[in-house]
Amino acid sequence: SLFLFGMKVMGEGLERAAGNRLKKILGIVTHNRVLAMLAGVAITAVIQSSSATTVMVVGFVNAGLLSLTQAVGVIMGANVGTTVTSLMLSVKLDFGMIFACVGLLLTFLPKKYTTAGAFGEVLMGLGVLFVGMETMSEAMAPLQSWDGFRNAMASIDNPLLGVLIGAGVTAILQSSSASVGILQALAGEGLISLHAAIFILFGQNIGTCVTALIASSGTNATAKRTAIVHLLFNVIGTVLFIIISLALPFADWIEALSPDNMRLQIALVHIVFNVVTTMLLLPMAGLLEKAACLIVHDKADQREGMAAFLERRPHAPYQNK
């Protein structure tokens, strides 16, 4: 509930702060897919959560600050940026508290600073969103020490089962970083082999899409399509890498890069998955947009299409009567 409330507050603040200057800045940063992708990498590397970045992008699209075309590159970059989490050893900051406090201070400014106050609402909403995500993750933390869960993870041999388990756990945790961390902990203790872990990791990339899908509920059609693009990106990448892993000694190649460090091996698989999928799909971003438009229909688009169809129809002689 905190997660959804934070999304609502953030969206309302974005609508209030959506001036022409902000739109121009976002337009410059995302005017081509490569820059948009790099922006997604940078944002996610800083906040350490691809889910939060994707939710923000959905909010931007819903507020009219980003088009679907601009959002696609940022989402792909977010998938690459999230790999930093499994590599960096940094001081953990309470982003939820930081954003909420800074946002609260901005809302106390005099009324003439309306734009700053609106940005304060955005930061407060983002802070509450982070608190909601952290609360969900902490509530599921006992999974890491539950013997039943550990035994289930250790007994996975079927690739499809591994993908489903990875997707399900990440959907519950609402954080791919958290689920990858649990997987690294299990692998570090020798409870799961790399061959089984890679399929769980592929599924975790699909499970993280649930956050954006939840965030897009109640938004406009374009925002829903943004979440669908995120889902398509990870599903296509998962199918591709399942084929690669079954046809080629992919796990053996990764083991050769770091023979004695299972945690690093999983991090490398995570990096290779997202970087290669982004390199392949970024040039085909237009096709992902079209697929998302086919999946999520907009009634306004349908009415415009019907009107154009009727205008193109030849008029029968009796129609003039």
Which helices and strands, and how do they pair?
Elements: H1 2-17, H2 20-29, H3 33-47, H4 50-62, H5 68-81, H6 95-107, H7 114-139, H8 147-154, H9 159-173, H10 176-188, H11 194-207, H12 209-215, H13 221-247, H14 250-257, H15 262-281, H16 285-295, H17 299-312
Helix pairs in contact: 1-4, 1-7, 3-5, 4-5, 4-12, 4-13, 5-13, 5-15, 5-16, 6-7, 9-11, 10-11, 10-15, 11-13, 11-15, 12-13, 13-15, 13-16, 14-15
Report on the architecture of this protein.
This protein has 321 residues and is mostly helical. The protein has 17 helices and no strands. The chain has helices at 2-17, 20-29, 33-47, 50-62, 68-81, 95-107, 114-139, 147-154, 159-173, 176-188, 194-207, 209-215, 221-247, 250-257, 262-281, 285-295, 299-312. The chain starts with a helix and ends in a 9-residue tail after the last helix. 45% of the residues are buried. The model is unreliable at 302-310 and 316-321 (pLDDT under 50).
Counting DSSP H or I runs of 4 or more residues, the number of helices is: 17
Structural class: mainly alpha
Span between termini: 59 Å
- State the share of residues found in helices, binned by percent: over 70%
What order do the helices and strands follow? HHHHHHHHHHHHHHHHH
The averaged pLDDT comes out at 75
Number-wise, the strands total 0
Radius of gyration: 22 Å
Tell me the fraction of residues in β-strands, as a range.
under 5%
In this structure, how is the largest beta sheet organized?
Answer: none
Backbone shape:
globular
Low-confidence stretches: 302-310, 316-321
